[in-house]
């Protein structure tokens, strides 16, 4: 038949596909290769981003918190929900960049906060708000 003709790609699998139609063997192998490719792509992309961020210069720039957003995944049935937190910053020259931040940072910052953003490539390192008050304290005369 299709895969039973002499040595070939499937000959090294022994009797694993014995008794299954050749079409099943083809689709099984194709799906397995797709899964392996996606995993390898994710690993390579993560290592590349990590390496690029490590090689980037650590910058501290004046910026303003432009927007905040969250992304929730999971949570169906009895599974746990995961939340990712993002802040978009606008720099003095008009550039905008979004960073993923920890929940604590997300909760402490408000849209419109201005200060100094420290980042390294696409890696968020911190944000120090300006300390000048927006309005005078009612206790000061």
UniProtKB/TrEMBL annotation:
Keywords assigned by UniProt, alphabetized: Membrane, Transmembrane, Transmembrane helix
Organism this protein belongs to: Paenibacillus gallinarum
TM spans (from-to): 20-44
Organism domain of life: Bacteria
InterPro entries xref list: DUF2500
Pfam families referenced in this protein's UniProt entry, alphabetically: DUF2500 (PF10694)
Protein name as it appears in the record: DUF2500 domain-containing protein
């Amino acid at each position: 038949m299709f895969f039973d003709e002499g040595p070939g790609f499937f000959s090294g699998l022994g009797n694993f596909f014995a008794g299954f139609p050749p079409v099943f063997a083809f689709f099984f192998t194709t799906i397995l290769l797709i899964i392996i490719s996606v995993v390898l792509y994710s690993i390579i992309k993560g290592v590349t981003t990590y390496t690029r961020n490590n090689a980037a210069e650590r910058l501290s720039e004046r910026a303003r918190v432009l927007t905040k957003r969250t992304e929730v995944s999971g949570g169906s049935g009895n599974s746990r929900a995961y939340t990712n937190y993002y802040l978009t910053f606008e720099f003095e020259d008009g550039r905008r960049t979004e960073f993923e931040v920890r929940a604590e940072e997300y909760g402490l910052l408000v849209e419109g906060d201005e200060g100094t953003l420290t980042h390294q490539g696409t890696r968020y390192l911190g944000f120090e708000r300006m300390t000048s008050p927006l309005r005078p304290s009612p206790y000061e005369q």
